[in-house]
Amino acid sequence: MTVLQVKVWRGGESGHYQEFEVPRFESQSVLDVVTYIQRSLDPTLSYRFACRVGMCGSCAMTVNGKARWTCRTHVAKVAAADRLEIAPLANLPVVKDLVTDMSPFFEKWAAAHGRFQGGRTRRDDFERVPPDSPQRGLVDEAIECIGCGICYSSCDVVSWNADYLGPAALNRAWTLVNDVRDTDQTRLAAVAGDAGCHACHTQMTCTERCPKQLSPTASIAGLKRLALAAALEGEI
Description:
By secondary structure, the chain is α+β, with helices and mostly antiparallel strands. Helices cover about 35% and strands about 15% of the residues. It has a 5-stranded mixed β-sheet. A hairpin with a 2-residue loop joins strand 6 (about 95) and strand 7 (about 100). The protein is elongated and about 65 Å long.
């Protein structure tokens, strides 16, 4: 039987890597490897997972230097010479081992006014959005984001600028400014500041790494265009 040499981050921010030997199986995912370590070798290992099928994004970790969903990452595609290095997501505080504190990620989501704000009540009829309308077409892919944090962890601008809102929050803002039902008139101003869309360097790492093959880069570019037009009109 082939054996994997696996280095796993242990502890908090100032932790260390611990090495394990894990049996290698056919069609094995990186999440399978982490689960084997926790269940068979060291029950104190902390990590997150839920659906195991690429629906929730909670199993996101850094695998061989890149943020990935571990449930959808096959060992055969990433374990060069039967070696793996597994760490928590970058750009987020480490709680313990492979678990990160997602609070900064969601706080920036809130700062980008990422909550839908409608003008109707439960007594009103539903407001319908034609699926072939131009604005709906602009965000057809962007609305599929599940907030896993892969793009945020992969973004160099987040690493350089702790205030930067990040790709996921800006992508969410883009979907809402194009939602004809939304009534928030201050969202564009919230994402047009120094820590907003104009801080993006268009390196496209977020787009390259997105497990759902979305393009936060395109969403951010859309916000830049809207912000510039609003500034020229004196609206922000």
